[in-house]
Each structure stands twice: as C-alpha cells, then as structure tokens.
Design a protein that fits this description.
Blueprint: E1 3-8, H1 17-30, E2 36-43, H2 45-56, E3 64-68, E4 80-88, H3 89-99, H4 103-118, H5 127-144
Parallel strand pairs: 1-2, 2-4
Antiparallel strand pairs: 3-4
Helix pairs in contact: 1-4, 3-4, 4-5
Length: about 150
C-alpha cells in the first residue's frame, strides 16, 4: 500500500485530486513499488517559476519538477519516502494542446516523468540515460493512457 499526498493550489475541475492519486498509484504499481510515500503538488505557473528559480537557477515556468528525498525515513516509519513532484497545471494544459495529448494524458506523462526522476532516472547527463528513461516512460504511458 502506497501513501500518496496530493496538494492542489489551483482551482481546476478537470484534474481532481482523486484522479492524480489514482494514476500515481498505478504508475507506482507499474514500477513495482509498494510501501512508498509520494508527495504531489499541483500549482500555477508563478509558483513553479519561483521554485525553478530558487532550486535550479532558471527563472521561467516549467511543466514538472522533482525533488527526491535522499535521506532515510525515520526509524519505524513504514513507507520509503520518494520525494516531491510539482506540476504546473496551466503549463501542462497548454503543453497538452501543443503536443496533441488530452489534458489528463499530459498529467499522466508528467507524473511518470517526475516519479522516474525521484527514482534516479536522468535524461540530462547522457544520451544512453535519456534513452533508458524515455523508453520506460513511454512504456508506462502507453499502458496507462488507455485508462485516462
């Protein structure tokens, strides 16, 4: 059983917290992860731009940011804490239109991407790493996109 915490700072009826929680749980199942804790924040462009500027030195909004938790969970805590995924809903909505996905499909794609980063996958250090990460991302997306 996974613990998925969703905070939604943007009013958007198309993407309910329940949908995000359920789809995140399915992604974790596809990755054979159980007893993990994951935090997901759904924010606006201004908030994600502030976070991107503070943590990555990039003063612009983006679609998704991931913050892996490197430390071990407190002794006796039953979950492995993966970290935080932050998604800008307005950015995701605009991007979905640009790349020809439904809004929910784009949220799914960004959640998969963010969770893979929490697990240590990276697409910026080498072409080989990028190939591995995007191949797994696409495989999970193809399977789960039929459910959104």
């Amino acid at each position: 059983m996974n613990k998925i915490l969703v905070s939604k700072e943007v009013y958007d009826r198309e993407i309910p917290k329940k949908f995000v929680k359920e789809i995140a749980d399915k992604i974790l199942q596809e990755l054979n992860l159980d007893n993990v804790e994951l935090s997901i924040s759904l924010v606006d462009n201004e908030t994600i731009q502030n976070i991107n500027r503070e943590w990555r030195g990039k003063d612009k909004p983006t679609d998704v940011l991931s913050f892996p938790l490197d430390e071990n969970a407190p002794s006796g805590y039953k979950y492995r804490v993966l970290g935080d995924v932050v998604i800008s809903l307005p950015y995701a909505k605009k991007q979905a239109e640009e790349i020809g996905l439904s809004y929910k499909e784009e949220i799914l794609r960004l959640l998969i991407h963010g969770i893979l980063h929490l697990l240590g996958y990276d697409h910026e250090t080498s072409e080989e790493d990028a190939k591995i990460m995007f191949s797994l991302q696409d495989k999970i997306f193809l399977k789960l996109s039929q459910e959104v």
